Amino acid sequence: MTHRYRLYPSPAQLPVLRSHCGHARWVWNEALRAVKAHASDATVPFFDLTKARRETDWLAAGSSSVQQQALRDLTRALANAKAGTHRFPRWRRKGEDEGFCVRDVTVAIVNRRWAELTVPKARPMRFRLSRPLPEAYGMARVTLDSAGWWHVSFAAPQPPVDREPTGAVVGIDRGVASTIATSDGSLLRAPKLRPRERRRIERLQQQLARQHKGSRRRGRTKAAIARTHAHALRRRNDWIERRTTEVVRAYDVIAVEDLEVKSMVRAPRPKPDPEREGSFLPNGRRAKARLNRAILDQGWGRILRRLEDKAGASGVVVVRVDPAYTSQTCARCGHVAKESRESQAAFSCVACGRKRHADLNAAANILARGIASLAPTPGHGAGPGDRAARRSPAPAGSENLLVARVA
Ligand SMILES: [Zn+2]
Fold first, then answer.
1. Which of 51, 88, 91, 153 is the most exposed place for a label (fewest CB within 10 A)?
2. What is the pLDDT confidence band of residue 44, given thresholds at 50, 70 and 90?
3. Catalytic site residue 238?
4. From the CA of 175, how far away is ligand 1's center (Å)?
């Protein structure tokens, strides 16, 4: 997990931070280019930073430790891609992936609310202690977000959740009508954009459409949109933190949809309805739904990551199951039919007549698949016939079932 704090550089410090970002990006991209030119699966970049610094004045004027760290970051990203835990690194783009790392960072605590960070070639800059500092930190990442805010984050080990074994198991569905549905019957909704925020974003987007590309005004409008989103994201993330802690505290085993198989398995199925349903609604409502989806869509990945981080630190097992047809299968009789899914929220089995909230029905299916993949079934195990567990990353062996994908 990472601890992130808002960083407040002085105007005089901004050029230094910006040039560190630029240099880190340049080194990353040049080294990536070299890797791609030589052998695409290389884990060590063929890139001679010393030579590049000798030949390029502006690079030599920058911090070699920032530049070396960018090279190390890329090396690690390539190793992760080779191990299959992460995607192949992509190009860093100006204005989008602004940031750099500082190794052996120095932090001085000023008072209860403020601390100071020292980055190469700049005087100490303040950051707000919105939460306690991690006990140990070796490296700091400084980033600039699209709202124009600077942040510093420290990697820290995930502390365990304070809990007692409960013997309870749960299936969790990424709901369509709600954010999270549990097989216990809870439907939980993450906070969305507030009406005022939505109106503000809509107004700013209209403004953006009228502004000239690349103009200063347009840049300011973009930052204003990003700031409004950032407020909503922060509320959503706080909500995710609280909910994931509650879930990890309450259950010993948590079954979730495996996101990686989702895109493959679900692609040929009919598109989920919100889009289509929206087309019958007045435009305003569709736009509202779209704005909110932008916030919620990214939420599920975060929910999974935080669940797995916290579970891993607390002795709780997270099982990933194949999500195929969980929303069309009757949790009582097992009949699969897309006609059973009456609407966004209603499931009504065409075979046995069972009526239930669609998200709760799906959560029950996820729980059943999770339990099935945990149970030792001699002879069959996680063989090719076992659809539910087939694609989950660690199908058999209870100690392997703890799926931890910590960055
Ligand atoms: Zn049924």
1. 51
2. low
3. no
4. 20
Indicate whether 246 and 359 sit together in one domain.
Answer: yes
347 or 281: which carries more pLDDT confidence? 347
Nearest to 361 by CA among 386, 393, 392, 336: 336
- Determine the distance separating the centroid of ligand 1 and the alpha carbon of 342, expressed in angstroms: 13
CB atoms within 10 A of CB 13: 18
Q: Is 79 left (phi over 0), alpha (psi -120 to 50) or beta?
A: alpha
Answer yes or no: is 151 within a domain: yes
| 31's tokens | 């080294």
Q: Residue 80, Cβ neighbours under 10 Å: how many?
A: 16
Q: Which of these is catalytic: 30, 73, 98, 173? A: 173
- 146 alpha carbon – ligand 1 mean position (Å): 48
Domain coverage including residue 86: 2-155
Question: Which entry of 73, 309, 322, 359 is annotated as an active-site residue?
Answer: 359
Whether 189 and 146 map to the same domain: the answer is no
Band of residue 353 on the pLDDT scale cut at 50, 70, 90: very high
- Ramachandran region, residue 261 (left: φ > 0; alpha: ψ -120 to 50; beta: rest): alpha
Q: How far is the CA of 173 from the centre of ligand 1 (A)?
A: 19
Query: Catalytic annotation on 252?
Result: no
pLDDT reported for residue 38:
75
Q: Which of 176-185, 242-251, 297-306, 321-330 has the lowest mean pLDDT?
A: 297-306
Write down the pTM of the prediction: 0.69
Structural contact between residues 336 and 350, judged by C-beta atoms closer than 8 angstroms: no
Residues 147 and 271 in one domain: no
- Distance from residue 351's CA to the centre of ligand 1 (Å): 5
Among candidate residues 257, 308, 309, 322, the one labeled active-site is 257
Judge whether 359 counts as a catalytic residue: yes
The whole-number pLDDT of residue 264 equals: 36
- Mean pLDDT estimate for the chain: 81
Residue 337 Cα, ligand 1 centroid: separation in angstroms? 10
